[in-house]
Design goal:
Elements: H1 8-18, E1 39-45, H2 64-71, E2 73-80, H3 86-95, H4 99-102, H5 118-124, E3 128-133, H6 144-151, E4 166-169, H7 180-195, E5 204-209, E6 216-218, E7 226-232, H8 234-237, H9 258-266, H10 275-305, E8 312-318, H11 337-340, E9 341-342, E10 344-347, E11 355-362, H12 366-373, H13 388-391, E12 399-400, E13 403-404, E14 408-413, E15 422-427, E16 430-435, E17 444-447, H14 463-476, H15 479-501, H16 505-510, H17 515-518, H18 522-532
Parallel strand pairs: 1-5, 1-8, 2-11, 3-5, 4-7
Antiparallel strand pairs: 2-9, 2-10, 6-7, 8-10, 12-13, 14-15, 15-16, 16-17
GO cellular component, one term: extracellular region
InterPro entries: Alkaline_phosphatase_core_sf (IPR017850), ARSK (IPR047892), GAG-degrading_sulfatase (IPR051849), Sulfatase_N (IPR000917)
Protein name: Arylsulfatase K
Length: 533
């Protein structure tokens, strides 16, 4: 409720009663007919681990509105980001295309400003459209550090690029609105529903982008800061069940996969952490997820209050997850579940209730799903597939208009904090991760049924499975060629940036986020870059 706190228990009871109109027959979404197209609300947050939306992850924190969506809609148990970092992930969601097709290589390189998104097409076909909050899918954003760290990942040096992860408790038990910017955008969306959407004669699509539960800036960490502070208030911390928090197991530094070691080091996580520190980081992160859930609740409550809920499809997702000290890392930029697994919940007219879908899906599926809802023909060139057949409870092998949904999803990463392009193929019980050209760095294979925490790489033990999954991956993307293109792009961009700085180059590069390490031996690091160039 604008100006006040989240809807709370009483509001939730009213919501449960108000959801009753969906209990009747399900109108078809995909086929034209007399039924008007439903409106759509998409709430996309930043860095929410999808495993918190179902058992056992949901035991750690109270998320009443995510639970409400599960009760009156569908939860996807295996939804993934197509690139575990903000801008490339969002570029995939707004374009319906894999990262290597849009060349959204890092947080600086996303879609071109004029790119036609699903929202543009829905507007062209008669939908009223409205956006609030974080978009972050076009090129040219994020800090200088972010892009320079990505461009120089092949340089032979190792520098800490983030502040050490830490927690910060603010306010008291009455302090609800911790992330004020997100609450302001939520208020705008709520007011728009109550004052504008209610008077529309055509269907609408509303997008709300939240920054939570992304960690907050750590001002001591230099230029544009790293974001390594998990910040919340006692109000939200009380929603967390401390006893249920799992302390992740870590490999010793010497046993880590070489790319994991690089990530852990650049994220400033290779130092000593007590169990209490790790537990607190995870607890504060879960509390930030609870605050995010409350903002989703505001939007759902506004739809209920205006009687729009029964004719609106609500979708909740995130751009990627958050490791929260799993695998001795925080942040994302990893193919481990904490980073790559996203929440995806859908409810509304025509959506099957209390349904849990095990199929692997990913954020490129949002684009064709939106077009399907709006009854707009789905282009053949998309990487994603409409979720509508699954949401209607159709058989797993249901044929969507554009053909069979594949039994795999692809995720790839080319940005900072990782010293190689990496690719993930997720299918059945398997997760296959390969790097660079497929030969120079050891691949990883995990059986997620037997090893959900991904602690045992069984690639050497199962060479035939590695070969089989690698063949599927190469049929989707010529990944050695893509990795090579990214290396060339990084070098080209760096040279251009260096030339633009002229005499200021040495001073500027020394004072990026890695300044604490760089300034100890500036000549050594400049020489390493010259050697790379």
């Amino acid at each position: 409720m604008p100006g006040g706190g989240p809807p709370g228990r009483a509001g939730l009871v009213l919501l449960l009663m108000a959801a009753a109109p969906w209990s009747g027959a399900r109108p078809r979404l995909g086929a034209p007919g007399s039924q008007p197209c439903p409106s759509v609300v998409l709430v996309a947050c930043d860095s929410l681990d999808g495993r918190l939306t179902f058992y056992p992850g949901n035991q750690t924190v109270d998320l009443p509105f995510i639970n409400f969506m599960k009760r009156y809609g569908t939860v996807f148990l295996n939804a993934y980001t197509n690139s575990p970092i903000c801008c490339p992930s969002r570029a995939a969601m707004w374009s319906g295309l894999f990262t290597h097709l849009t060349e959204s290589w890092n947080n600086f390189k996303g879609l071109d400003p004029g790119y036609v998104t699903w929202m543009d097409l829905m507007e062209k076909h008669g939908y009223h459209t409205q956006k609030y909050g974080k978009l972050d899918y076009t090129s040219g954003h994020h800090s200088i550090s972010n892009r320079v760290e990505a461009w120089t990942r092949d340089v032979d040096f190792l520098l800490r690029q983030e502040g050490r992860p830490m927690v910060n408790l603010t306010g008291d038990r009455k302090h609800v609105r911790v992330m004020e910017a997100d609450w302001r955008n939520t208020d705008k969306a709520v007011n728009w529903i109550k004052n504008e959407a209610i008077n529309l004669t055509q269907p609408f699509v509303l997008y709300l982008g939240l920054n939570l539960p992304h960690p907050y800036p750590s001002p001591y960490a230099g230029e544009n800061f790293g974001s390594s502070t998990f910040l919340t208030s006692p109000y939200w911390l009380e929603k967390v069940t401390y006893e249920a928090i799992k302390i992740p197991k870590w490999s010793s530094l010497s046993e880590m996969h070489p790319v994991d070691y690089y990530s852990s080091y650049t994220k400033n996580c290779t130092g000593e952490f007590t169990k209490q520190e790790v537990r607190n980081i995870r607890a504060f992160y879960y509390a930030m997820c609870a605050e995010t859930d409350a903002m989703l609740g505001e939007v759902i409550s506004a739809l209920r209050d205006t009687r729009l809920l029964k004719k609106t499809i609500v979708i909740f997702t995130a751009d990627h997850g958050e490791l929260a000290m799993e695998h001795r890392q925080f942040y994302k930029m990893s193919m481990y579940e904490g980073s790559s697994h996203v929440p995806l919940l859908v409810m509304g007219p025509g959506i099957k209730k209390q349904q849990q879908i095990p199929n692997v899906v990913s954020l490129v599926d949002i684009y064709p799903t939106m077009l399907d809802i709006a009854r707009i023909p789905v282009p053949q060139n998309l990487s994603g597939y409409s979720l509508i057949p699954l949401l209607h409870g159709k058989a797993e092998n249901a044929v969507s208009p554009e053909g069979h949904r594949p039994s795999w999803v692809l995720s790839e990463f080319h940005g900072c904090n990782v010293n190689s392009s990496m690719y993930m193929l997720r299918t059945g019980t398997w997760k296959y991760i390969t790097y660079s050209d497929g030969y120079s760095v050891l691949p990883q294979l995990f059986d997620l049924t037997a090893d959900p925490d991904e602690l045992t790489n069984i690639a050497v033990k199962f060479p035939a499975m590695v070969h089989s999954l690698d063949r599927i991956l190469r049929s989707i993307v010529n990944y050695p060629k893509v990795s090579s293109s990214v290396q060339e792009y990084n070098k080209r961009q760096f040279i251009s940036w260096k030339q633009s700085l002229g005499q200021n180059y040495s001073n500027v590069i020394a004072n990026l986020r890695w300044h604490q390490d760089w300034l100890k031996e500036p000549k050594k690091y400049e020489n390493a870059i010259d050697k790379w160039l």
